[in-house]
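We treat protein structure as text, and this decision shapes the records that our systems exchange. Such a record has a labelled line for the sequence and another for the backbone structure tokens. The record that follows is passed on verbatim for readers who wish to inspect the format:
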Amino acid sequence: MNPTQKILFAFIVFFVFDDASATKVDFPGNAVRRNGIVASNAADIPQAVLDGQWTPLRASLLEACLLHNNESVLPGMGNTGHCFSDFNHVDCCTMLGRNVDNDNNGKVEGIAFTNALGTGIRAASLDGGESSSGSWCTCQLGADKMPPQDVCHVQFRAMIGFKLVWCPSETPSRAFKSFVLVADDGSLLASGTPVADNGFPSLRERTLNWHVVANGIYADACGAAFPAHSA
């Protein structure tokens, strides 16, 4: 994506999500400008990085999400070592500052009842978009429903800037080795086939990642990005 396309993409995301639409009403906790920046960042990751070693690619995903790459602090204090590393913490959620302390209160199935994340969000978030807005790699459980019933949409009443989905294949040797990055509406932002290294998620995690979204809007981009995998 060249600089002109990047500006246009961010403008379109801002315009669509900042009008008086049902989207804004349904997700009042969404940091609209931050979300547009994050989606544009994801679409702008160089293909050489998307197809390169996993560990630097994961660092690029964190940077795109406007999150620090920090594994030196305790979990809950801004540690992002789990982000994009398992089947579940793959949503780059962008929320307004007033929503970062939202609790789950049992609304999302399979998630801790309270799921208090505010301290970690404030510690890990980089500046971008609305003042005091934040990002987090939230759990995707419930993303196969319509509208999505995951942590980002339900607990934070926000939207994802991008989601990481590992893609299946009818050819076993290709299965779950490639991924797509998709926007909140399921549209394709980027795709890649990274080189496995010591930090690469296990086949079990990558397979579970797909099964969470297989029946929802976030599955379609795999076929669009990798049509040969289903041939």
